[in-house]
Amino acid sequence: MKTVKITTDNKVSIIDVDFGNFRSIQKAIGGHFETVRTQLMVDYFKDPSVIMLVDEEGLVKGLPENATGCALYGTVKHGCPIVGDLIFGIVSGEDIVAPADPEAMKERLLGTFIGLKEVS
Prior knowledge:
Blueprint: E1 2-6, E2 11-16, H1 22-29, E3 33-36, H2 39-45, E4 50-55, H3 58-61, H4 67-73, H5 75-78, E5 86-92, E6 95-97, H6 102-112, E7 117-118
Parallel strand pairs: 2-7
Antiparallel strand pairs: 1-2, 1-5, 3-4, 4-5, 5-6
């Protein structure tokens, strides 16, 4: 399944992730993960089912901030940054699945967040 990944060095790409296998998600972001959903994300994507999957131990590991993740999380308001690489998923019942159109998601992010660079 294809999804969008954003790294801490502002690179955005489409990657394959098996959302049915938690180890595949861990490999994509570099560790144990947690899900994040905010009103800012709901408003931006116009979809309450979109989530970010982030490294839950990122702060303890001393990972660098993810500028796009921080913007979508609302770090300025909440104070706690999103650190490490992130991927996007969709909540479907009790499952997490891939976005229906990751290419469109990537293009929207590239058009919104200055500094994001596309990589293959």
